[in-house]
Amino acid sequence: MYAVVGCTECGTYWLLTDPRESDSATCPKCGRRHQTKKLNRFYETDDREAAREARAALLAKKHGDSAAFDEVAHVSELEQRVEESGLSEEAYLEQSGIDADEVQQAGDTSTASSRSRDEKVRDAVREGGTEAEVVDRAVDDGVPRGAAEKLLEKLRRQGEVIQSGGELRLV
Length: 171
Prior knowledge:
The chain is of the alpha+beta class. It has helices at residues 48-62, 66-71, 75-84, 89-95, 100-106, 117-126, 131-140, 145-157, and strands at 2-6, 13-17, 24-26, 33-35, 40-45, 161-164, 167-170. Helix 6 packs across helix 7, helix 6 (117-126) crosses helix 8 and helix 7 (131-140) crosses helix 8. The model has no long low-confidence stretch (mean pLDDT 85).
């Protein structure tokens, strides 16, 4: 379940995952904690993409851009148009005199050491557990403890990590 909610302090809209199971939520912009039962719910759905679209419509309306928003196709339609238009990446590279296979090999960053701190903290959250367990896993993966704690808090403020039943989850 996803809900588009709004902060009563700063007016920011964000997506809240499982609003019925969370006791509180933190605004990703101003950091204010809200009781989820008291948050204004503008839209609820089981479909994340539909919730994102509803949030985008609310933001457009808030900024006086509803007419322009209505003229733009849904993001899935836009993605399809991009796929159908122009050259593929490989064809573009080949026409530019660049070997697409070499570009692919140069961009291969599958080694664990090339992961950023943010990715390591996100991976630790994906494995589940309490805040302390997540931070310990990130530290074991090479992230300094202070940096892991700050990144985790940043993900919370942005609404990308929630706490449910004492365990952290990515939204």
